[in-house]
Amino acid sequence: MKYVDEYRDAAAAQEYAAAIVRTVTRPWTIMEICGGQTHTIVKYGIDELLPKAVTLVHGPGCPVCVTPVELIDKAWQIAARPDVIFCSFGDMLRVPGTTGDLFSVKARGGDVRIVYSPVDAVEIAKQNPAKQVVFFAVGFETTAPANAMSVYRAKQIGLKNYSVLVSHVLVPPAMEAILNSPTNQVQGFLAAGHVCTVMGYVEYYPIAAKYRVPIVVTGFEPLDLLHGIYMCVSQLEQGRAEVENQYARSVRREGNTTAQDLMAKVFCVVDRKWRGLGGIPQSGLGLTAQYAEFDAEARFGLSAYTAEEDAECISGLIMQGVRKPEECSAYGTRCTPDHPLGAPMVSSEGACAAYYRYRRLRTHAPVVAGGSSRG
Amino acid sequence: MCLAVPGKILSIQGEDFARTARVSFGGIVKEVSLAYVPEAVESDWVIVHVGFAISLLDEDEALRTFEILKQMGELADLEKPAGEA
Ligand code: SF4
After folding, report:
1. Helix (H), strand (E) counts: chain B
2. Taking the CB of residue A197, how many other CB atoms lie within 10 A of it?
3. A180-218 per-position pLDDT tens digit
4. Domains in chain B: how many in total?
5. How far from each other are the two terminal CA atoms of chain A, in whole angstroms?
6. Do A149 and B17 touch (CB under 8 A)?
7. Residue B42 Cα, ligand 1 centroid: separation in angstroms?
8. Whole-complex ipTM
9. Is A35 inside a domain boundary?
């Protein structure tokens, strides 16, 4: 087992696709939550292997896409300060805010650095005691343990020049917001395998029961997705609405409890705004009182700042599964990966960028193939 | 940035939250924190996200995706009318 190539086998993919064809008798709409899954689906043409009756819609699980524009502006304002080293994951740098993106601050001489891990930002703070080092702590439950550890370590070693700009979001409240919407079309979910690796899947039981939707915890390789879709349509056809785990090689029912324990020390559940979706109560994480001294918004006096989103970008409708990227009037014209108007055109996990990259120039149906690596 | 990838542990050093490993991702070796997988030992496969291992991979469970496929193939063969290859 190498845990990658086996899951890209073209023959096995065709077999799963055939099993789905045999199972489906009616139209169904399924949402994959995670942008990483959207990326695999579009790159390998998984949706084109499916029968016409199965529609996949792309969910809000891309942190780059849902970080609200006012947080991008706050990052911009902090990064522009001469006393600051601003650290971020690379794909946040091109997300447009109202004043520009983080690359534009860098171009004007701001010290903006791309880090691979939040603990790298802690190291930079240790090495630069005369500077304020700020880390842009975005992400879903998958990333929260790593970001929590950076704050935990900073407190442990008594760092006074480290802080985090937190924009953490949680998956289950977003699923409920989608299901509660009057325009909802989603009948089943593929839950994000790495979010569940951290959190487990117990919190999905009440959602499956309350809204009568099947929820299948699913991995990220082409075969994982086909297997997850097969499990989801089987439930729908049989009238079941259960939580099932396709990604059992990584996901345990209770999740990673060591990570959850540290997250609970550093973070607590708070209301959050989502770009494109608006405010969702109890849908994110903020620092607990014990770690409040590491809050960059408070440190730089930005807590009260707000901003409005661009009106042309329909990312909210795309992330609720109501529209596809091609239906946006700016797609591929005023909005491209080189000049993104909205966030889903920035990251390769954003639906608009995935369509632009893999679908625009396609003249023939793609086949799932082994060997080529993702990302 | 949400990408999390499987890798194999080559060696381990340190203790508790400072425990780290050299992990091979198809030949590319990186240093990874094992803070969240205290049970990990050398030669284990882990899922790694932004420098942290977040789970151990279970080989038996991994094989299930292919077993199900095999069973489905046999079922489909049974359902085919006689004479069809
Ligand atoms: S194409 Fe651009 S403007 Fe349109 S929804 Fe996607 S990101 Fe927004």
Report:
1. 1, 5
2. 25
3. 999 999 999 999 999 999 999 999 999 999 999 999 999
4. 1
5. 21
6. yes
7. 45
8. 0.90
9. no
